[in-house]
Amino acid sequence: MPLASVFADLGSFDLLLSVARLGSVGQAAREHGVSQPAASARLRQLERRLGVALLNRTPRGSTLTGEGALVADWARTAIEAAEALAAGVGALRSAHDSTLRVAASQTVAEYLFPGWLVAVRAAHPALGVTLDAVNSADVARRVLAGEVDLGFVEGPDLPAGLHAETVRTDRLALVVAPGHPWARRRGVAVSELAATPLVSREASSGTRRALETALHAAGVTAIAPPLLELSSTTAIKHAVAAGSGPAVLSSLAIAGELSTGALVEASVRADPGGRALVLRRDLRAVWPTGQPLSGPARDLYGIAHR
């Protein structure tokens, strides 16, 4: 009998064991929640599949034939193994659903994820959550490697193999120190911005890639190298406030500094005859293509999307 057929018939073998224990097809049927005719039909079908008679059927009840007793002994071992397999898989699923591993770009990690975490923990009070705050390229790498269950990126580029869904639109802003000449300008030209060395994150950061993509879309062909490359948004804000130079940062990251006057937002205008600079980008949830989200990861995505 092919292995696939054996597994397909496990329910019928289990029904046979119940008949052996209870001495009646009717009682076995009630135990399994099916009608007696349905139980009888399943047992007859099993006999046809195996090519042997399994039951002696009499008006007083049903007993196993000699062959039926042998089959029942073998089936008992198989069913116990299947139950152990189901229990083991259930334990693995429970352990998986009790931990959520997330990688997020720094803007998402610092300014959006804490609120999402409160909501997902309300739905899963015992959930353990780990968050890696890295740049967008590292988020993509970790998701593809299976190191995390869900990722959030802010950059425009994604490698093959990732499915992405927008969860938020973010505005980027040009910021300077209060004493910087651009703080008093009515507008900084796109070409001047592109030619000015900025305080920036590393090349693979989502914010930097979003700015470069926006400048190219506005017709810029050459972009000045950074004045400084710093590893965190906080470090960039301190450097700009100290007068090191301008920076382009997420509006989510600078709200507090703008309200206190530590930083000033400078507007950007198009060059004469040129295209406007669109400083907006999509913040996206990412996971492997063809692998639907489940459990807490699916719930977190739903919370972020709302």
Write up this protein.
The chain is α/β, with parallel strands linked by helices and 306 residues long. It folds into 2 domains: 3-95, Winged helix-like DNA-binding domain superfamily/Winged helix DNA-binding domain (Arc Repressor Mutant, subunit A); 104-283, D-Maltodextrin-Binding Protein, domain 2 (3-Layer(aba) Sandwich). It is built from 13 helices and 13 strands. Strands 3, 4, 5, 6, 10, 11 and 13 form a 7-stranded mixed β-sheet that branches. Strands 1-2 form a two-stranded antiparallel sheet. A hairpin with a 2-residue loop joins strand 1 and strand 2 (61-64). The longest helix has 32 residues, at 66-97. It is rod-shaped, with a radius of gyration of 32 Å. The mean pLDDT is 89.
What portion of the residues fall into strands of 2 or more residues? 15-25%
Oligomer: single chain
Proportion of helical residues? 40-55%
Structural class: alpha/beta
Q: What Rg do the Cα atoms give? A: 32 Å
Q: How many domains in all?
A: 2
- Which sequence of SSEs, written as H and E, runs from N to C? HHHHEEHEHHEHEEEHEHEHEHEEEH
Q: What is the arithmetic mean of pLDDT?
A: 89
Main CATH class of the largest domain: Alpha Beta
The shape, in one word, is rod-shaped
The profile of the biggest β sheet is: 7 strands, mixed
Which residues form runs of ≥5 with pLDDT under 50? none
Report the count of strand segments: 13
Number of helices: 13
Amino- and carboxy-terminal Cα gap: 52 Å
CATH topology of the largest domain: D-Maltodextrin-Binding Protein, domain 2
